[in-house]
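Re: Re: ligand-bound prediction request (bumping)

Still looking for help on this. To restate: I need the protein modeled with phosphoric acid mono(formamide)ester bound, output as structure tokens. Inputs repeated here so nobody has to scroll up.
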Amino acid sequence: MKPRKDLLDIQSLTDEEIEFVLSNAIPFKNLFKRSVKKVPTLRGSTVLTLFYEPSTRTRSSFEIAATRLSADVTNFSVNTSAVVKGESVLDTIATLEAMRTDYIVVRHGSTAIPNLIAKNTTASVINAGDGFHAHPTQALLDAFTLREVFGGDVRGSRIAFVGDIQHSRVARSTNLLCRRMGMSTSMLAPGSLIPRDMPPEIAVFQNWDQLHDWKPDVIYLLRVQMERLNVPFFPSIGEYHSIYGLTDERLKRVRDEGIYVMHPGPVNRGVELTDSVMNYERSLIDQQVENGIAVRMSVLYWLKPGSSIEEAKS
Ligand code: CP
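Reply:
Sorry for the wait, this slipped through. Here it is.
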């Protein structure tokens, strides 16, 4: 396997690389049961988190992952940095480059900013979410969780994405990885929240009855991304919840059919789900969060920072 500097999306990964990250996450997860959860793997390395958009799970998960690998972690606080005085992303990166950071974990509202940064730094750049485009570590932790649930082999299993697919980098990355791993995928959402470029082989449903007829093993709920809806994509939140939400009534059928429920977080209670979904015995939401740390440890272990800007640009 060739060394890789950056993790920017799922498309560019080889099957061997995906397998490497997922299989190496297992021993990292086993560490969590020990009283000392730290290993010296990245001692002397520095990891910088650079989030231009809010995050709870991804940022703290990377911080914990890097700390458990004995790396030093710095949070670059965009809101209190010279960014608010108009400093550009590239000028910020030039400054960080001079500080000899080994890994930069970046989230940005614009697609391809992580790619731009990766070409201008020797540090390994990890895309922690860019616009609607990609969230590769979320997809990898979802794949790891699905492999745990289905005994290591997810081929032939069926996963249905429900909610705001149009604005979801998670849906794009996780759907892609699930299909590469041999799962069937489908979607349920208002027509206005289904991307126009959806591959024709992905089933798109109008309602929950059609979704149940497809016999999914997993329902993957997605948050309605209000902050990205500059025009109304559906009449009201109440109407959205009653037609597309996982309500208490729908949860009864989901439970009867033994379907697992996933969600990348943050959840909007009363919109895509109700409180009772959070306590559902086949909800994998907490397992996804825990697995995020192990998978991100594996990603940091796998990537190799570059030696020169020329190499980064090539
Ligand atoms: N899943 C996810 O990206 O969550 P955060 O926005 O809290 O990082």
